[in-house]
């Protein structure tokens, strides 16, 4: 397991964009902020919250945290981003996940993660970096299907190709799978509500990776959209996408 016996647990950055100049607002996001602040403070993190940042200021704030925070004395780093997002294709038709600033301009997730990679943030060498992205990754939706579970079998899940991120000791979790819509309620998003529930109720003997699997279960089994005015998004379900380059277990 990773060494979690440093002087500090680490920094947890929460970027919350719920007001936009030319996009619809995201009511309920403040509930997500409160839940994440509470849970990560309980885990011992120094929590920094930034609200309604433009795309350029998102980059500026993260650069500052990367360079100014004393990561040498920390166990790990956490970044939580709550905003609008989409899949973006550049001129070479290469695909990137992007999130939007309050000004409607976007910044790529890969660019954000780059700020905390080994070459740019030496204090995190050998330490895990955890990213949680609550944002849409497209406009597709998936209708839920009621099932009866009789047995559990190992299933090979196809991996959607995307531009590779050359990182080590990194885990990031999107609120939905590639190309799909991320759902929320006035009381918060499905993903963050599920993550909050798991952090509150999981035994500390579990690895963090096991907790994230439980988050997927919570979302899949306990959430379904209700919108009789728009049947295209009524009765839909979603599940987070967890990608890990960790080489050891994480215990909080």
Automatic annotation (TrEMBL):
- Record-linked SUPFAM superfamilies: Caspase-like
Residue ranges crossing the lipid bilayer per the database entry: none
Q: Where is the Caspase family p10 domain?
A: 167-252
Concerning InterPro entries, the annotation shows: Caspase-like_dom_sf (IPR029030), Caspase_his_AS (IPR016129), Pept_C14 (IPR002398), Pept_C14_caspase (IPR011600), Pept_C14_p10 (IPR002138), Pept_C14_p20 (IPR001309), Pept_C14A (IPR015917)
Q: Biological process (GO) annotations?
A: apoptotic process; positive regulation of neuron apoptotic process; proteolysis
Q: Which GO terms describe its molecular function?
A: cysteine-type endopeptidase activity
What GO terms fall under cellular component here?
A: cytoplasm
One Pfam family linked to the record: Peptidase_C14
Provide the Caspase family p20 domain boundaries.
8-140
Q: Which family does it belong to?
A: Belongs to the peptidase C14A family.
Name recorded for this polypeptide:
Caspase family p20 domain-containing protein
């Amino acid at each position: 397991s990773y060494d979690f016996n440093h002087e500090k647990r680490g920094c947890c950055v929460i970027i919350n964009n719920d007001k936009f100049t030319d996009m619809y607002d995201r009511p309920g996001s403040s509930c997500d902020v409160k839940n994440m602040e509470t849970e990560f403070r309980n885990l011992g993190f120094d929590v920094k919250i930034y609200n309604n940042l433009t795309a350029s200021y998102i980059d500026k704030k993260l650069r500052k945290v990367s360079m100014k925070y004393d990561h040498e004395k920390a166990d790990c780093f956490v970044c939580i981003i709550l905003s609008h997002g989409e899949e973006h294709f550049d001129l070479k038709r290469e695909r990137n996940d992007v999130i939007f600033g309050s000004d409607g301009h976007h910044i790529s997730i890969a660019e954000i993660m780059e700020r905390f990679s080994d070459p740019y943030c030496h204090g995190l060498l050998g330490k895990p970096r955890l990213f949680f992205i609550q944002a849409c990754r497209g406009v597709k939706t998936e209708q839920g299907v009621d099932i009866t579970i009789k047995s559990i079998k190992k299933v090979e899940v196809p991996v959607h190709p995307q531009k590779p991120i050359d990182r080590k000791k990194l885990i990031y979790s999107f609120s939905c799978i590639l190309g799909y819509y991320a759902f929320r309620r006035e009381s918060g998003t499905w993903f963050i509500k599920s993550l909050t529930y798991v952090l509150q109720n999981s035994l500390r003997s579990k690895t963090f990776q096991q907790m994230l699997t439980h988050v997927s279960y919570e979302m899949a089994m306990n959430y379904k959209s209700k919108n009789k005015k728009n049947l295209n998004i009524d009765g839909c379900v979603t599940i987070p996408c967890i990608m890990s380059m960790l080489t050891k277990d994480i215990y909080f």
